[in-house]
Write a structure and sequence with these properties.
The chain has about 170 residues and is of the alpha+beta class. Helix content is about 35%, strand content about 35%.
Length: about 170
């Protein structure tokens, strides 16, 4: 049975890596005797390590197949997280609302919940068509929670500090 891959980008990791590269270019062209440039050339392993780390873990593939769910790096195919279908109780569609200083951002995502009511795997959808495609693919292997959940700033649940709260239903 074929597997479905969904590309994912961590913009924070890639943004900081790009900022390191741009600032190094700026200081090497315009401010050749700056303290920043001296530190970057003296301790060059740290920024190089961070840039390589960002490329490896900032670009990932989420894979859904008959064996389960897997997140792998885009470069190299290293498995970051893997879970079998027998550990998943069901999956739920979640409307995530992130409140930031610049405004409110909404993400539609699919949460794969384990038998212990802890979030085991999360896939953020790019748009409605992508969301429907993920739901159709996941329906082949697991059952869907019948209500759409609504979470505001769900970082504690995403990092598995709290269990899923089923009272947070989207109205």
């Amino acid at each position: 049975m074929p597997e479905k891959k969904y590309f994912r980008t961590n913009y924070t990791l890639l943004g900081v890596a790009l900022l390191i590269v741009i600032s190094f270019i700026y200081f090497s062209v315009f401010e050749k005797d700056s303290e920043y440039l001296r530190l970057m050339t003296e301790y060059y392993f740290a920024p190089i390590f961070y840039i390589i780390f960002s490329l490896l873990f900032g670009l990932t593939n989420n894979i859904i197949n008959q064996n389960g769910l897997k997140r792998t790096t885009f470069f190299g195919g290293y498995t970051i997280r893997s879970i079998d279908w027998n550990k998943i109780k069901y999956f739920a569609q979640v409307d995530e609302e992130w409140r930031q200083t610049s405004g409110v951002t909404n993400n539609d995502s699919i949460w794969f919940v384990g038998h212990d009511d802890i979030l085991h795997f999360r896939i953020v959808a790019k748009n409605e068509a992508h969301l429907k495609e993920i739901i159709d693919e996941a329906n082949k292997f697991s059952k869907k929670y019948d209500k759409i959940l609504k979470y505001t700033d769900p970082s504690s649940t995403i990092h598995r500090i709290f269990k899923i709260n089923y009272n947070k239903i989207k109205s």
